[in-house]
Amino acid sequence: MMNIVVAMKQIPDLRQIRIRNGQPVLEDVPLTFGNIDKNALEAGVQLKEALGGKVMVVAVGSEALEDTVKEALAAGADEAYLVLDGKLENSDSARSAELIARIIKGIENVDLILFGEGSGDNYSGQVGSRVAGMLELPQASYVRSIEVNGNKATVVRSLEDCEEVLEMEMPLVLSVLADINEPRIPSVSQILKAGKKPREILDIEVPEGVQVKTISNLAPQMQRKQTSVESAQELIQVLAAEGYKGVK
Amino acid sequence: MAGILVYSNKGTLALELLNAAAALARVNSQGIKAVSINNSGMAADLAARGAEVYALDNEALLPADTAAIAESLRQLAEQLDVSIVLLSSDRRGKELAGRLAQIWRAGCLTDVKGLQSENGALLCIRNVLGGATVATQQIVNDRQVIALSPGAFAPAGELDGGIINPAVVEIKPSALKLLEVREKAGDSVDIEAADILVVVGQGVENQQDLSLIQQIAKALGAEVACSKPVASDKKWLGEERIVGLSGKICKPQLALILGVSGQVQFTVGIREAGTIVSINSDEKAFMNSMADYVLVADLKDVIPELAKQLA
Ligand SMILES: Cc1cc2nc3c(=O)[nH]c(=O)nc-3n(C[C@H](O)[C@H](O)[C@H](O)COP(=O)(O)OP(=O)(O)OC[C@H]3O[C@@H](n4cnc5c(N)ncnc54)[C@H](O)[C@@H]3O)c2cc1C
Ligand SMILES: Nc1ncnc2c1ncn2[C@@H]1O[C@H](COP(=O)(O)O)[C@@H](O)[C@H]1O
A212 vs B107: CB contact, 8 Å cut-off? Predict the structure, then answer.
């Protein structure tokens, strides 16, 4: 039996962000969970299916999260623990991590805490390591497989040039890569049941201060010719005209 | 500006950090503090660039044990009274950054590709929103942990005046066992250095077409690169060839892009190319709107045709 926590971040659907005057327009963009966080959830659900136990989603974000979290409950999570506050729409990693750690401290007998390798919007790979540091737990990031044996886990951490096979004792914090699995698509009945699964909204005060200030956030200017060509042959001609070597 | 400490477990990246630190401190690398862990070669290399090296020699310290490495760096940052720690933003360094920041009570940013100092404030430039935008951010804490993207700074050059000091930290026995290290098979291609890239996306449907694509690349004097799923899911090419947010940020003169839809996490890695060509069967593919030349066609036909014409 395992108690598995999965931390998931609510983000704007990046495919629907438009740029106006160099600025990203986030109003009316639907909210969802980051792709890699869905891999973390799937990893947790697979372990639960194999070994028994419970998968708990922990998320901190704006009020809309109460609705967004149904996605995770439909995809196999059993319960959700949330901190909701408008201030969290633009939180920094330190504050999010602090709130996540406080939620986890309130949950009994947690064996495994799963994160995504990076959140969909900020992709800084910081929150999981911060939570591990705060809870003083061992950790591994960039994990592409997890095997559990009793109170030990064997995990494979994938670095740029090598893979490390690690044996670690639980409780434990892991951040997973997108390669670890293919998240399931929930069925209609799972989606319907998700609304009835327990969602606990915790009354934890959100600190005011953040440690990172954003001075500007701009889309890079791009000017491209956008010329259509009709065939491979014509493409080679235009590239040759631009003087690329090898192109005759 | 108070002291800066630099650490990476990769030698080349440590030299880049040293150079970035020197620029920040507006001095040369003499007197910049650098840590080496169980690596006398790296200690010597850093010292040969003028650094004040603190060499930790402790066989119990495993690089794989992020908790222990972070705790060691925290103790050194306190012993040496620095306010900024620069790390490398490779996977090892990114994992370490958050943990060190937490236990040292510091603000932190990773994947930082540029640094500016303005009226005493240190500004960090990095991609956000999956790469759709570039943000300038400032850590408002007195203590800062900043992880710099590999290759964003040139490595420090040789300089006199370096020194190696022994360093000592106290750590608990490791809670983790390293059972095995498997080298990755990857060929050490450097797609960031290529002048021309031929980029394989999921629109390339047959693996057999890769050999024709290699011929095309050869004729153009190009390297073959790919979108993430082509390496991570299909395993057709090695991960070192991935273009994008979780791969490499490339600036070739010419990028010939075959069947890539153009999501931000990909385009962030190619948008600074000189000329972009997109070949895609979907006229509306976002990649096309970022291209100089667009060929709307089926790659099953175009790939053999290109290979033939360039032969
Ligand atoms: C945090 C995070 C980080 C990521 N990092 C990266 C990264 O570094 N690099 C990266 O690439 N992705 C990254 N991704 C994934 C990214 O979001 C996209 O999923 C990925 O880039 C899509 O790859 P693709 O364009 O090859 O495939 P698809 O999106 O499947 O596009 C295939 C394209 O091929 C075209 N096509 C299909 N058949 C044909 C044909 N016969 N002839 C011509 N055209 C055809 C289609 O019209 C389509 O446009 C990341 C995602 C996340 C969440
Ligand atoms: N607000 C949040 N709520 C829940 N989990 C989060 C939140 N922010 C980050 N995470 C988790 O931490 C991981 C790393 O995030 P980041 O440090 O932003 O790259 C994500 O993949 C999530 O698993």
Answer: yes
